[in-house]
Amino acid sequence: MGHLKSNSVTALATNPVSLHMATRAVPELPDGTRPFYLAEGGANIVYKYTIPNGFSITGLTKGEGQQQQMGRKLLRLRKRIDSGTPYQETVENFDTYIRPMFRHDELVDQELVSLPKGFITYCNEQLRVDEARSLRPKDRIGVYLSTKEPFGLLITDMTPAPGSDACLWEFKPKWLLQSPSAPANAKRCRTCALREMKNYDARKAGEPEKQSFCPLDLVSDKFDDVLRATRFMRGGHGRARVAGFLHRNSTLLKLQTCQRQMNAVGLPGLHAHYRDRAISMTLRDCTMFVRVPRDEHEPLEVRLGDLDFKSGIGGKLQYWRETENRLIEEGWYSGDRKDQEFSECSLQGPRGDFRLTAEITK
Questions:
Q1: At 24, is the pLDDT very low, low, confident or very high (cuts 50, 70, 90)?
Q2: Domain shared by 337 and 272, yes or no
Q3: Which reaction equation describes what this protein catalyses (predicted)?
Q4: How far apart are CA 269 and CA 176, in angstroms?
């Protein structure tokens, strides 16, 4: 079961960053800041923004209270959903439990920022305008930002700088280890089993299926397995270069190690301490960002983001229980169902030569 290891998340209760947070001033976003919608997920919306000439974000600090240049940042705002967590708690969890696992330059950093009066109301009005113009994704319509959240999060901007000709690769590594409740003879990893089950449901409902890579390919010793996985990632130029960068990548392998240490998942995880379970699920639902310069002599940059606690509130715990039970009882792990004839999962054994069907861009 997942427990906090001494060599990765040590002395969490006395973490100086977490303790300092209670006393340091929260930076303030100045009046007149203009947000520009960039992207959104189920729980948050990310904005680019500009601040008025002559103003700065006051009180911006990082590390052990040392003043720092702001650099390129994005603004993340919280949606009003049942499973939403106040941002102050989000940052406390991140600083206390997630930050000690990784180097600073391996993470999409985040820091609380106080929002001007009326800022969220303005953003929600713009979301409704975007909906009227069919500019907002259809599956996000009708859900707006929480007007009860007084803070936003300033996060590291991994988007390419204007004019740089760099590109951004983005993907979720997901479960880099098998579920502890999977059968011993499983021919599908947890992520592939779940995807195939969801595709079965989608076919029955007449909805499109989704294809993706096997997470176990990402941590494979074989370069071709990693290259195979990159077919399904959102990115731009340099596919083979990205695959070479990800092959035995230290940050990716560290994430796998952290998942092994924090393994309160599957059916055993339902009975674990809620904090162990939250950390374990968080490590399995983060996003990896890889910024790729056009110049092949320049280094690639990788960071992990979306590391908010998956607490299990808002019906999530019940969903996890029902999902794992269904994966086991309906045989999705076994890979023997008639609708599982082909799979990307590396556990099934030999797969087709992806080079014959996938274009590999340089």
A1: low
A2: yes
A3: 1D-myo-inositol 1,3,4,5,6-pentakisphosphate + ATP = 1D-myo-inositol hexakisphosphate + ADP + H(+)
A4: 16
* Alpha carbon distance 153, 307 (integer Å): 13
Q: What is the pLDDT of residues 190-217, one digit of tens each?
A: 999 999 999 999 999 999 999 999 999 9
Strand partners, 110: 155
| CA dist list (Å): 26 to 21, 40, 268 | 9, 24, 39
pLDDT of residue 10: 38
DSSP string of 204-271? HTT--------HHHHT-S-HHHHHHHGGGSB--S-HHHHHHHHTT-HHHHHHHHHHHHS---HHHHTT
pLDDT of residue 354: 52
Q: Are residues 147 and 124 in contact, defined by beta-carbon separation less than 8 angstroms?
A: yes
How many CA atoms lie within 13 Å of 330's alpha carbon, on the beta-carbon side? 17
Q: Which of 156, 181, 205 is the last residue of a domain?
A: 156
> Could you tell me if 218 and 226 are in contact, meaning their C-beta atoms sit under 8 angstroms apart?
yes
Residue reference for tokens 């983005």: 170
Between the alpha carbon of residue 354 and those of residues 45, 146, 255, the distances in Å are 35, 45, 26
The Cβ of residue 81 has, within 10 Å, a number of other Cβ atoms equal to 14
What is the rounded distance in angstroms from the CA atom of residue 359 to the CA atom of residue 167?
A: 18
Q: What pLDDT was estimated at residue 71?
A: 58
277 belongs to a structural domain: yes
- Measured in whole angstroms, how far is the alpha carbon of residue 79 from the centre of its chain? 16
Number of Cβ within 10 Å of residue 114's Cβ equals: 16
114/192 same-domain check: no
Is 4 inside a domain boundary?
no
pLDDT digits 0-9 by tens, 134-178: 999 999 999 999 999 999 999 999 999 999 999 999 999 999 999
> How far is CA 115 from its chain centroid?
24
Number of domains into which the chain is organized = 2
